[in-house]
Automatic annotation (TrEMBL):
Gene Ontology biological process terms, A to Z: chromatin organization; collagen fibril organization
E.C. numbers: 1.4.3.13
Compartments, as annotated in UniProt: Chromosome; Endoplasmic reticulum; Nucleus; Secreted, Extracellular space, Extracellular matrix, Basement membrane
Modifications made to the protein after synthesis: The lysine tyrosylquinone cross-link (LTQ) is generated by condensation of the epsilon-amino group of a lysine with a topaquinone produced by oxidation of tyrosine.
Reactions that this protein is recorded to catalyse: L-lysyl-[protein] + O2 + H2O = (S)-2-amino-6-oxohexanoyl-[protein] + H2O2 + NH4(+)
Protein name as catalogued: Lysyl oxidase homolog
Functional note: Mediates the post-translational oxidative deamination of lysine residues on target proteins leading to the formation of deaminated lysine (allysine).
Family affiliation: Belongs to the lysyl oxidase family.
Disulphide bridges, residue numbers: 11-21, 127-137
PROSITE patterns listed in its UniProt record: SRCR_2 (PS50287)
Source organism of this protein record: Scleropages formosus (Asian bonytongue)
Length: 344
């Protein structure tokens, strides 16, 4: 389903991500009949024996309890929920073989858990989301710091065997980019929605803003997906990664714009219909709708990196976050703009 993003892939075997391998992004001559697949062998590392979920309504949810060494003996205890989020929940679900994170909970008073495991034994947990075990994440070690305690505020998770997987189409971004000089008189609503640079508040009403416009196409290759407050961030970065301009898009309307052959559209926004993206379908944000831009009025001519990030705050769990970012090389001469080498 969806476009072919990688062709003629060659890996050494030591890469941390398949996107680090050599590949040809041109999909000519490559069809879905040649889609690659793998069969994985997960070694028995015993990670699941040092972690458990307790108090939930089913085996896929509950308060997170960890087996830790304290005073020379192994004891079960809770994880401090301060800063606990989707990335940490992803690792817990993976470690227990329960699939993907559905939600991360910072309060678990409704899941009593084991009475002898109320003591906090782990705090300051920060995960990238790719770790095999919660113990592999950054944490405070023996010097715990959990001001709220671990009873009511112990960390919890709910897991799911399946999850959405949103994937951007980099070619759409590359092929639809252009500049528009738009008068402030036509941008009042966009200004109130914070879709313009901060300097827009200091200019006369008869001035113009230069907008970098483009379309974005988001495919759902996993489970059905619903909307959220902050859906996409658009950033123009200097070559050293410094942000020089930015935009954002709330998912005010998610629907099935188009679907792969044989898949029927299910969600549409017309007449207050239910929102979402069906598996095998995609939603297209056209270049000509409000806020589908970056205000580059104050940007100097030069070479830049243009970046589009879906689900930037990890508000909704996905099976894979590594394909949520598209980066393009960008050249701006003060009058025209070129977008090239867009990739995930």
């Amino acid at each position: 389903m969806g476009p072919v993003h990688m062709n003629e892939v060659e890996c050494s075997g030591f890469e941390k991500s398949i996107t680090e391998c050599f590949f040809n992004k041109d999909s000519l001559g490559c069809s879905h009949e040649e889609d690659a697949g793998v069969r994985c062998n997960v070694p028995a590392m015993g990670f699941q024996e040092r972690l458990r979920l307790s108090g939930g309504r089913n085996p896929f949810e509950g308060r997170v309890e960890v087996l830790a060494e304290r005073n020379g003996s192994l004891v079960w205890g809770t994880v401090c929920s301060e800063g606990w989020g989707t990335m940490e929940a992803m690792v817990v679900c993976r470690q227990l073989g329960l699939g993907f994170a559905n939600h991360a909970f910072q309060e678990t008073w409704y899941w009593p858990g084991e009475v002898n495991a109320d003591r906090v034994v782990m705090s300051g947990v920060r995960c990238s989301g790719t770790e095999m075990s919660l113990s592999h994440c950054l944490h405070h070690g023996e010097h715990l710091d959990c001001p709220k305690g671990g009873a009511r505020f112990a960390a919890g998770v709910s897991c799911s065997e399946t999850a959405p997987d949103l994937v951007l189409n980099p070619q759409i971004v590359e092929h639809t980019t252009y500049l528009e000089d738009r008068p402030m008189l036509m941008l009042q609503c966009a200004y109130e929605e914070n879709c313009l640079a901060t300097t827009a508040s200091q200019v006369p009403a008869d001035s113009y803003r230069r907008l970098l416009r483009f379309s974005s196409q988001i495919h759902n290759n996993g489970q059905h997906y619903h909307s959220m407050e902050v859906f996409t961030n658009y950033d123009l970065l200097s070559l050293n990664g410094t942000k020089v301009a930015e935009g954002h898009k709330a998912s005010f309307c998610l629907e099935d714009s188009e679907c792969d052959e044989g898949i029927e559209k299910r969600y549409e926004c017309a007449n207050f219909g239910e929102q979402g993206i069906t598996v095998g379908c995609w939603d297209t944000y056209r270049h000509d709708i409000d806020c589908q831009w970056v205000d580059i009025t104050d940007v100097k001519p030069g070479d830049y990196i243009f970046q589009v990030v879906i689900n930037p705050n990890y508000e909704v769990a996905e099976s894979d976050y590594t394909n949520n970012v598209v980066k393009c090389r960008c050249r701006y001469d003060g009058h025209r703009i070129w977008m090239y080498s867009c990739h995930i």
